[in-house]
Amino acid sequence: MLRETGLGDGVLSERRVFHVLSTTEDQTGGPRGFVEKRTPRFSGSPADA
């Protein structure tokens, strides 16, 4: 599938996926864990759940 996608379509697809992933609770899990000096807790849940 990816090999059949042109550059423009691939970049658009990546942008959409990045946006979806950046709205999850996990997006802050790594940095928060680092600041709190603990292992991050990843839930896989959306931020509004």
From TrEMBL:
This is Hydrolase. Belongs to the enoyl-CoA hydratase/isomerase family. The keyword Hydrolase applies. It comes from the Bacteria. The keyword Hydrolase applies. InterPro entries: ClpP/crotonase-like_dom_sf, Enoyl-CoA_hydra_C. Keywords: Hydrolase. Residues 22-49 are annotated as: Disordered. One of its GO terms (molecular function) is hydrolase activity.
